[in-house]
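note to self: dont lose this again. the chain is below, predicted strucutre after it. 311 aa total, dont forget to put it in the shared folder this time
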Amino acid sequence: MAGLGIGAGDEVILPDFTFVATASAVLFANALPVLVDVDPNTYCIDCDLVEAAVTPRTKAIIAVHMGGLPADLDRLTEIANRIGLALVEDCAHAHASEWRGKRIGTSGTAGTFSFQASKLMTAGEGGIIISNDDKFERQARSVHRLSEWQGAILHVQLSRLDEQTHRRHQNSRLLDKLLSEIPGITPQKIDARCTRNGQYAYIFHVDTKQFAGISVERFVAAMNAEGIPNQASYPPVHELHMFRNGEYRKRLSGKQATEDHPFLQKKFPATQRAAWQTVWLPQPALLGAEEDMHEIVAALSKIQKHAKELA
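---
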């Protein structure tokens, strides 16, 4: 944010459905994160709502590629270029994902990638920033902390990234096909312009009415009991403590620290659905053989068959 010249009094538009770090990065720059809802099928930022959220204070848009699926980069790039905003791609989930055959992280002003322990490439923590803007690159490089040892670990992982990405992508498309036969399970919709999905996670919506009304938490526990690693999602940003009780205002100055921000009064129906009604299969589960994908589906079918016993 600092490298983009974003600071006090500025606004940055980002999805409500994202990890808190996306919003806290904006707050650390003393700017206001403006939250908007996501597309109910892809779980990526809703471009119509992005355009509606632009004000004279807006300086940037953050596109989060949720689960590895690229946000609509055609539309977001057009909006950013037309209005004169920076477009930052949050690629924490999306190493090696592609949009129209082009690697993500290269469509906007900057792309950020995470190397946290659960990610598709990991060095324990940290990440990288890529950009074609020389001034921005120099500013980012001036505060880099990556050690040579971490760089060596990551370099080795690059040699197998494409093969692993291909396997995750293929297994996920197989799951799309197999899960279509289970009532109540709706996978994240893949945009046809996504030519490759890094697939940090396989995300699917669970209609609990088709599972005897059991909670998502009970569903997750049942999947784990069947030996299938899975987890529920993270909460909407607007429901986090620092936003609900106004703690975020302590990072702001001037009018922003005192005025009522409209996004806090808005409803986020698609985010609520994504946050509380989806289940994620983590990326290691997608590196198995084809028969492993069939085992995942068999576990889901078993849970549905015995759901009344779990209620």
